[in-house]
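Milestone M4 deliverable, item 7.
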Amino acid sequence: MPKRLVLLLPLVLGAALLPGTSPPAARASAVPAPATQVAKLTGPGSINDTEARFALKATDLGILWDNGSGEILTAFGDSYGSGWTGPGGGAGDPATIDWRCNLLFRSKDRNLADGMTLDSAAEDRPRHAKEFLGCKKIDRDEHTVIPTAGVAVGKRQYVQYMSVNYWGPAGSWFTNYSGFAYSDDNGETWTKDPKARWVNDKTWSSNFQMTALVRSQGYVYMVGTPNGRFGNAHLARVPEKQVLSKGAWRYWDGRSWSPRESAAAPIAIGPVSEVSVQWNAHLGKWLMMYLDEQRASVVLRSAAALTGPWSGEKVVVKGTDFPGLYGTFMHPWSSGPDLYFTMSQWDPYNVFLMHTKLTDDGPVTNLVTDPGFEEQAGATPSAPWQLNGRGGIDSTDLGHSGSRNAYLRDSIGAHSVQQNVAVRPGHRYRLSAWVRTAENNRDTVVGVRTLSGRSVALKTGGAHPAYEKVSVEFASGRESLVQVYAGFTGHGQDVWFQLDDVVLEEIR
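Output delivered:
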């Protein structure tokens, strides 16, 4: 069927089966160019005419993986037929919306520049895509079962799914457990393995309730987050022949692989949700894409190794351009600098194919997000930056570079701009920042502290009448999350402090 090209998005900057050899070292981070929306994949007006062909009018997610036999398998979440009225999931008469908790489609389309053709689906009758993982549809018991990741090992397909107990406030939901299901007939029939489950704890905070899955070097790796959209990302792995053996999984504790799930250390600081991870051969590094709920943006991180260090976030798509965006999953057949990914919108509650181009942004992997404050749209620092005291954002070309910088101004007390960052325990880091101050500002600092406020390292000083690079080195010790900060303490005179181009890099 014909495909059609859709509009170009105005944006600002911010998996494939993996090769059998170790990835080369890479230090630069990936930068996404302005993105385009390629095609609507599902629902009315889509290139696949899913309502007529598969009784699918509305759906979300679109989790992608290579089945190892020349097809991409695509798993969707809660899906609805002709009775759906929108917007969002579950809208319409329950008797007529034809609710299926999940669906599975297949695609052989390698020409992604004009969209992704869905060739077939797992069906229970002609022209009706079936629910491939059963769910109770009982609120506060098991409201739904939603796939979060997929991977192929040989001819066997694995899906990681979450059993949702109930939906909470926006961005929050609560799961019973996550688990593995498998199929040996290319997705037609599936078996949930009752022993391959990660049961949620009493505080609803287990770290592997939603996942991304990738294969590398004989292992299946799992990047996990808690339920909802506000947790950190953690890492686990298992020999690829033992995916269903929960006791064989090992969890990255920041230094080594531990048999204890509770030992898992964050590899990326949240909010991370609906994460997708992929090896990018063009850049020679790993990519991690997800929704940052605080920034209402789809973002991208990169790293030379799955264990990190992961770069700061780069914005791929903004919620101001696509309200209600979520659920982005990278296409395994992306090649060269072209990165394709699916993306959902709550309204019209359907899935789109998106495209961006990737480049490196220099020789250093900077762990700080928005290091030059160029993504700050308002007068006050916003996520991931935090303001402690009095200050704001300059937007009148007063910075060291670019058009924006952070500033602090007051006469008394401690004032700082700060950001929380994930680091690897047992490594050394260098924090640097460009600072300019009033000539009478005699008590300035650039430093690192734990999230509980204990000082790790700091460089104190006096005035910096012209922009000057201030640096401090530190050992992370046992810490996996730290706070970088810069500021001053006032002693009665009106003083100011400007901050720009903050860099945190691992040096060994």
